[in-house]
Amino acid sequence: MDGMTVVWIVVAAAVLVIVIALIAGAMSKRRSERQRQEAYEHEQQARMSAMHAERQQAAADEVDARARKAQAIADEKAAEARRLSAGASERRDAAAGARREADEHRNEAQNLWPDDNTDGTMSRDGKAGAMDEQPVRDESWDDGTHPHDPRHPKHSKH
Questions:
Q1: Cα separation of 78 and 84, whole Å?
Q2: Residues 6 or more apart from 29 whose CB is under 8 A from it?
Q3: N- to C-terminal Cα distance for the chain?
């Protein structure tokens, strides 16, 4: 091989190396550009996802606030119901006490009611004797001499 052939082989090899380097550089640049584009797209998607997440968080916060408000209203109504229930219980107890007191007075009145059944009418307890009506108030009996008056001597327990 003569010297010129060697030179041409070396030049061809150098050109080949340069062409391969240029192709590799272009491919690297293209790959780098593609990666940049992908990174940009991912960044855009990340922004969109972040905006969506913020909207979702705002909606969740709003729903949470409404739930807390509804719970506060429910707690207030439950407290009012407890107060009303306690008031009803107090009134029920007072009514029961008033009934007991009325029964005691009725029993005392029946115990004090004379068993004298001489007039043939019915007494308050259903036995023969005075009628089951309130007697007409007669001013002449205000001194305790009426036979049904507890102050009457017949009712005194000496």
A1: 10
A2: none
A3: 166
Residue carrying structure tokens 């905006």: 51
Q: How far is CA 91 from CA 78, 84, 99, 100, in A?
A: 20, 10, 12, 14
CB contact at 8 A, 122 and 131? yes
Write out the H or E segment, with its range, that includes residue 28.
helix 3-112
pLDDT digits (tens, 9 = 90+) for 60-90: 999 999 999 999 999 999 999 999 999 999 9
Structure tokens at 147: 């036979």
Residue with tokens 């107890």: 93
Beta strands in 14-58 (DSSP E): none
Give, in order, the Cα–Cα distances in Å from 38 to each of 44, 46, 124: 10, 12, 105
Mean pLDDT of 124-151: 61
